[in-house]
Amino acid sequence: MEIMKAVAFRGQAGPGRLAIEERPKPTPRAGQAVIRITTTTICGTDVHIVKGEYPVRDGLVLGHEPVGVIDQLGEGLEPEYHVGQRVIVGAITPCGQCFYCFNGAHSQCGGPLGGWRFGNTIDGAWAEYLLVPDARANLAPIPEGLTDEQVVLVPDIFSTGLGGAESGGVKIGDAVAIFAQGPIGLCATLGARLLGAALIIGIDAVSERLEVSKRFGANVVINYRDQDPVAAIKRLTGGRGVDVAIEALGRQETFENALRSIRPGGTLSSLGVYSGKLAVPYEAIYAGLGDQRIVTTLCPGGKERMRRLMEMVAQQRVDLSPLVTHQFALDSIDEAFDLFSHQRDGVMKVALHPALPPARQLTAGARELEVGSPA
Amino acid sequence: MEIMKAVAFRGQAGPGRLAIEERPKPTPRAGQAVIRITTTTICGTDVHIVKGEYPVRDGLVLGHEPVGVIDQLGEGLEPEYHVGQRVIVGAITPCGQCFYCFNGAHSQCGGPLGGWRFGNTIDGAWAEYLLVPDARANLAPIPEGLTDEQVVLVPDIFSTGLGGAESGGVKIGDAVAIFAQGPIGLCATLGARLLGAALIIGIDAVSERLEVSKRFGANVVINYRDQDPVAAIKRLTGGRGVDVAIEALGRQETFENALRSIRPGGTLSSLGVYSGKLAVPYEAIYAGLGDQRIVTTLCPGGKERMRRLMEMVAQQRVDLSPLVTHQFALDSIDEAFDLFSHQRDGVMKVALHPALPPARQLTAGARELEVGSPA
Amino acid sequence: MEIMKAVAFRGQAGPGRLAIEERPKPTPRAGQAVIRITTTTICGTDVHIVKGEYPVRDGLVLGHEPVGVIDQLGEGLEPEYHVGQRVIVGAITPCGQCFYCFNGAHSQCGGPLGGWRFGNTIDGAWAEYLLVPDARANLAPIPEGLTDEQVVLVPDIFSTGLGGAESGGVKIGDAVAIFAQGPIGLCATLGARLLGAALIIGIDAVSERLEVSKRFGANVVINYRDQDPVAAIKRLTGGRGVDVAIEALGRQETFENALRSIRPGGTLSSLGVYSGKLAVPYEAIYAGLGDQRIVTTLCPGGKERMRRLMEMVAQQRVDLSPLVTHQFALDSIDEAFDLFSHQRDGVMKVALHPALPPARQLTAGARELEVGSPA
Amino acid sequence: MEIMKAVAFRGQAGPGRLAIEERPKPTPRAGQAVIRITTTTICGTDVHIVKGEYPVRDGLVLGHEPVGVIDQLGEGLEPEYHVGQRVIVGAITPCGQCFYCFNGAHSQCGGPLGGWRFGNTIDGAWAEYLLVPDARANLAPIPEGLTDEQVVLVPDIFSTGLGGAESGGVKIGDAVAIFAQGPIGLCATLGARLLGAALIIGIDAVSERLEVSKRFGANVVINYRDQDPVAAIKRLTGGRGVDVAIEALGRQETFENALRSIRPGGTLSSLGVYSGKLAVPYEAIYAGLGDQRIVTTLCPGGKERMRRLMEMVAQQRVDLSPLVTHQFALDSIDEAFDLFSHQRDGVMKVALHPALPPARQLTAGARELEVGSPA
Q1: Are the C-beta atoms of residues D150 and D320 closer than 8 Å to each other?
Q2: Rounded to a whole number, what is the distance in Å from the CA of D320 to chain B's nearest CA?
Q3: ipTM of the complex
Q4: CB-based contact B264 A293, cutoff 8 Å
Q5: What's the pLDDT score for residue A359?
Q6: CATH second-level architecture of B167-296?
């Protein structure tokens, strides 16, 4: 039995709840694959898990954003795939063959949230090797010439953010407001632009993020500490409100503001993860008579989704690599997690590399953010 | 100046807030028409208004479900229309030419809820004559051979109920649950059937309405006084929940139950009129990660909607006339309103006739309900 | 090695091109299943194959409409499935995991027409046993209480016909014309009704089929030998044409008539299998300026499609069993094929039973056709 | 009666079929407006008309791309509009109130091609003044700060080209091929980009247009004189073909190539104006079994469409003004028409100005084409 290094969640372990451990290297069964992880990253959801706000089992290997190289293939995957091939896998790994997948709800594969397996119900990508279930549905070869950094945000951040714009039904000439401009919100902003919105309004309280927002497609940015965003949005849209608002934080306040920002007949597309009761003021939905929609979206996955999004990168329509502001060895997970979870040093996303020697941090600070071709 | 009889809302008048008054008969300007009302009806919304729960101006003529005969045509309506033609007009009268109409939100014509004019912002159908704005967009000729009773529920009840099933995106083979089986809920049940649902579940607390529900398309009915509807629905759907739930009452309880009844990836289509805050328990929306939709719908109007729905009646695909359980002279509005608002005598809907002599009530009690071809 | 009986296509064998042969009983690999066929049927496509009009390899076992019992399960299918379970499998067997499946074109799984495997690229259902690829995506348990005859038309005929109405985008109140009323056309007619069409026009030249058409949902039938169907359709629709026309034959004449029958903004949904060049008269498409759509559809498959359609049968919304007019032992394939291909004795569809003794024909002639609840 | 200058089609007049004539200045009735034309242009359709290939009545004033200032308003248009307001009107002027408009086929307003009125069934924009029917549905105020040149291509070219991409259902990550890169094809290319296509392939035979194509969003251009475009497209898409092909010329060859370029499950979106019979080779549609779509589109119009497209200009998401390569006085229509119809001097589109003195041509030659922010 081969041994590998992995970062496990240890629920009982107090503040330092992440443990670097030795694990058996997985072996693929029929239809499965094992990939050697070259790059992965930390997601806001991982922060929730480590804080104990989203329960997972003790000892689970976390991480759901894998970039790597095929190491072993189970029965039935050749010749479509071959060992040594560079691939990514979506954060969500649908089987493509169940009730939910056939009904187009691939992220709910097998049941509620069922498509989210890595670092949730099975061991994830913070390890040297990753076992990929339903590999034929999920291994997505990386186009020639793209680096790990160019694609590491595709499995979750880009797919989720863009998904929010898609679920919102953004159309040519729409006015769209995006509440919160963290990585997901920025990708939703980019998504609104990619789908043809005209007026794109980015809302946040951090002025640096609002600057980035402009580079990702916002025509107008609103710092909600300076002004009431709902009133500002109404002013910008002739009193009507936006066609689509995207919530990218998961709080009552942003949810409610987003709802109040949409016009009659408009759509609130929600990406946030909520806790507690959400209140829907009846006047904000015109007593139920406003012909409005509220839509929630879990990150779309599957190899074709990954292929399409990487094709956007390969064709130079988007460049997400500037969001990767920091790089760490996987062994430095504590340091990386600390930086990311406290949003220090202008961090947007960190890249984690299992093969790097422990002490090595590739970049000391934030790179200058540049988005080559945000649309 | 000609005089006509009309039933006005008198906000200050105490319990008897409906007054039969004399009014000037309206005269059409360019693009408008006047129709002589032959039949109209009372809607649950009218009950809200009369109770003071939905504010309208003092003196407004109520009623938004007009069946009649063209009496006068303003400039620009001939030869498409002619005096003496039998027509209905939708409860909602979109102009077809504004921002909202061009964006497909016809019921929000001109602004929030703006398409609802009759008995809300302009004088309505409880009168001998009705002025129809944007008549070219709203006069819908009645197909030869159909009676007033066969079409009087088309302007609102049928269009709204069916609209709930349409907004829910009901598809072939779907499982659909409809919460509340009043006239709107029954038409939503019928709508689910017309759109090809397989398993249709009707929920109410009144056993007579559940019997009618079966005739309108329900395969299974649930009396929520006897059992928990959410648990029952889960049992009927292999633990998953329905593809679409339709809320047809406007209460927190039915909204929440409807939400809990839908599967991941499912849709809650809301028809109810709400007051106060709606609470959305976060676990009922899977913390925002369930790929679900909540959609609200205001009655679709316009002459083409009316034409399509009357064509369903003319081709004998639906027969709504059994829902018209009682008939009154408009002069007997107090009696009719009392019966309807207290749901006495098995009443579903009452027909009001301005031309009938005051004392005359056509039918003494409920007809046996029969739905000829509910699908 | 176990031996089974199967009916193979023998391309070189002259008029009697079907041979009853002994074959090795298949063995399932990981993800595959073997079912024992209890009932199957003959499709018009099989007639094309036997006539040499659609090429398949010599020795192929034909048949793509399987009803049976699970005999063996490859790795990974338990406990979802178990031996002895009654199932159907769609004529089309998508994998759910390829480029085409993820893009919603399941019937094109793997490449052009790639989802159609049985009796086309792999051995089919005219045999005692059938090997099912991608079984997790394709085995559909038969609801308790349904007979083989009630579901044998689900794998192809019902799914295809209904698919034509769905691809046409039939909406509530639509006028729909269906060209040709063979089994596929009848199911398209039924599909138009299930989706809420108001005026449904069935067209054929065989008066018996036009009678059946009425029972499947047609309000009006047109015998094109008696009158020009395009002119008749225009008359029935106020000069405009239908919203949707469905072509269910595969000839230039029906294609062109269907095209000429749709209104500006309308849809031609094509189900036919064509040969040679189709001509599109430019005036029939308004020189390209009529905002029209032409859509082709290959039978939708996959277990969820099958589940939904069987649920329509189980909930008594459709009854297709009357279309099964004749029953034969599989050993009597020559007799059955002769009857079916020459459309003798009022045949609509024949049921074939591998387990029946050779000489036995269950029904001597056509049953009286009855469609219990066509909508 | 006031007199105005207008350019009329004189069918009998030989080569010089355009006559500058004096006409009564129009007067608006209820719901109509008169605008003073400041800028208009020549369309390929006008060339067809002048050549006698598309019949219009003798004496008709041509031109369907109006930019101007409101001169007079009929009853019912104030205060929404006011005299002196700068507006554009779409080439297509839907009423918003008829069968077709309510069914979403606004360009077929009133009947086949009925929304195209200007320069087709009523006097058009090549005049000092233009009568606008259904003005409430069609007058679109120009956002502050935009010049005539920035918006003159919105009424037809941009709306049509973009409409081709929209009708094709272009989605994020799609591969799209556009056949012909004239002004319409270029705007379809831009449309594919605005909707999120990844790989965009422009095809033409004129190398200058292929250069422009790259600036409008094409990643790859194909000169079909140098290579077979279908084979090249298959190579670029892993043998599959594109998701969407857009035909922007109106010839059998481009139509057929476009059809052969799409993958199974793909869409051919046709913008061309055809004459004669179109042939559809059966193998190009996989005998009718390829799950493909063919869609035709007539320019979308109406004030909201115009508003949205001008908003794209105002928000600097598109800049179409570089396509306006030449400027003329309306009095120089013969010279302008000659240049445009023979595609001399690198002409893309010419601007015509009724108020300019006859001899004046603003620009002697083609400006350097620059597209500021094609996406």
Answers
A1: yes
A2: 24
A3: 0.94
A4: no
A5: 52
A6: 3-Layer(aba) Sandwich (3.40)
